[in-house]
Specification:
With about 290 residues, the chain is mainly beta. The chain has one domain. Helix content is about 5%, strand content about 30%. The chain is built from two helices and 15 strands. The strands form five sheets. Strands 3-15-14-13 form a four-stranded antiparallel beta sheet, covered by helices on one side. It has a four-stranded antiparallel beta sheet with strand order 9-10-11-12, with no helix packed on it. Strands 6-7-8 form a three-stranded antiparallel beta sheet. A hairpin with a 2-residue loop joins strand 1 and strand 2. It is globular and about 55 Å long. The chain binds FE2/S2 (inorganic) cluster (FES).
Length: about 290
């Protein structure tokens, strides 16, 4: 673990958000976790299939695609919430019923199928109408020294990120933002079904330089605080073989040029947390959706 909470100097680093990554460009590298798939094997109905999503750009390593974003919002108590669409049950032509959760958000078709990879599609809390699960992001045991001040399982609060523009640790440059790790929709499921989440409050998202479509999405999915910082959420599960990456929490990241990136040290994949693009993958069918 890194040593946190040192005070930074100003950084002039600037990032620019990349454009859409088309499905055709990805056709040769589509995978869902450890399982390579092709259009010939892709499920095609509501239980999975080709899905466009927004996520962190993959920079290096064997990961086939970027980490999916979790769109965030802030409630009246300053709690960070992951947006979860209202579930809707549809009756299929064969008379069977299928429940899905999708909505229009920031001009984008946001669906919980974004999370159907690496076994997450079997997690009880990610069922669209999961009993007893709410939207609150909760702290986990903590990947950062500053998180020793918060309780495992407590709601993630904006008041804990007020020093986001000063926070730093021994890994990476100061002025990038302040991270936290947590869980989501995992209150009533076995520990092995805990959904890992990475949240970063940052001023590195330069919305004025983004394409219109990405800017609209980022403005809708990364809520802005009164001080100008934005909250950015990701599923913290590598799209390669499903390990948990780290953002400024793994000492070997610098050796791979990833001190300021999200780094997965299982096989050295690197993701840029501040470069958001539209990507495509093949969502696996949810448990029970298979034909
Ligand atoms: S790079 Fe292989 S699991 Fe992350």
């Amino acid at each position: 673990m890194a040593n946190d909470d040192k005070y930074p100097v100003e950084s002039d680093r600037r990032r620019f958000v990349k454009g859409v990554v088309g499905g055709s460009a990805l056709a040769g590298v589509l995978t869902t976790g450890a399982v390579a798939v092709s259009s010939a094997t892709a499920p095609s109905s509501g239980g999975g299939g080709f899905v466009n999503y927004f996520g962190a750009e993959r920079l290096a390593g064997p990961a086939p695609r970027g980490l999916p974003q979790i769109p965030l919002e802030i409630d009246d108590e300053g709690q960070l919430l992951g947006v979860w669409p209202e579930p809707e049950t549809q009756t299929l032509p064969d008379g069977s019923e299928f429940t899905e959760a999708s909505m229009e958000l920031g001009g984008v078709d946001y669906t919980t199928e974004w999370y159907q990879y690496c076994g997450l599609q079997t997690f009880g809390g990610l069922v669209p109408d999961a009993d007893g699960e709410d939207q609150v992001i909760r702290y986990d045991a903590g990947s950062y020294e500053w998180m020793s001040d918060v309780e495992n399982g407590d709601p993630m609060l904006t008041e804990h990120f007020e020093d986001y523009d000063e926070w730093t640790n021994d890994i990476g440059e100061p002025g990038q933002g302040k991270p936290a790790t947590g869980t989501w929709r995992s209150q009533n499921v076995p520990p092995e079904q805990t959904v890992p989440v990475l949240v970063i409050k940052t001023d590195q998202l330069e919305v004025d330089n983004m394409d219109d479509r990405i800017r609209e999405w980022v403005e809708a999915s990364c809520p802005e605080d009164e001080d100008g910082g934005r909250y950015l959420g990701y599923v913290n599960k590598c799209t390669h073989f499903c390990c948990a990456p780290g953002y400024r929490s793994l000492d070997d990241a610098a050796a791979f040029g990833a001190a300021n990136e999200i780094f997965c040290n299982c096989h050295n994949s690197v993701y840029d947390p501040f470069s958001i693009s539209e990507q495509q993958f093949v969502a696996l069918p949810r448990s029970g959706d298979e034909e």
